[in-house]
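Key idea: predict the complex, not the pieces.
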Amino acid sequence: QKEVEQNSGPLSVPEGAIASLNCTYSDRGSQSFFWYRQYSGKSPELIMSIYSNGDKEDGRFTAQLNKASQYVSLLIRDSQPSDSATYLCAVNLLYYGGSQGNLIFGKGTKLSVKP
Amino acid sequence: DAGITQSPRYKITETGRQVTLMCHQTWSHSYMFWYRQDLGHGLRLIYYSAAADITDKGEVPDGYVVSRSKTENFPLTLESATRSQTSVYFCASRRTENTGELFFGEGSRLTVL
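Result:
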């Protein structure tokens, strides 16, 4: 069973703090990794993608990938109340269901940023 | 720029009825997907399509049927709705097989009584 695991939360941080979201995956064949943000009642939207080990920064967001340990994380610096949402980790498996193109999603971590 | 649209956005039906959820995208993306999202389960793949007339099962295909006669449309049919199919359904598309960004529709909230 190929799995993507996340803490469901809620993760509560004060405004201005760093929020740290973690994700582990079971399949060592995983190639690509993504973080989606989903506001309540809305559809998911992509905020970060990462393909190789190390850090990738985009504005206040930093994605970190460690393939040896099979985890990927998302750091949100200077957290804002508008960052309050559910964050979904998604992993693109090399082969799943006959297609290379399918993403497996974690259940999501709910983040709450308190003013 | 309409993107990807789903209809209906909200639907209430009864057990045993047939329901079709529509999905239309204007980008000519090759790949299209149907997910369902439930509390405690996250997003689960129902069916996907790599191109017109090519479809395949995902993680939870039982009770669902799809077709893709045109690149831009990917309808999902529940042939005989059950209460366990009460969920929020998301259609998504992506340009290529290896491009990670899925573009999601706004979702269709289905309630089966």
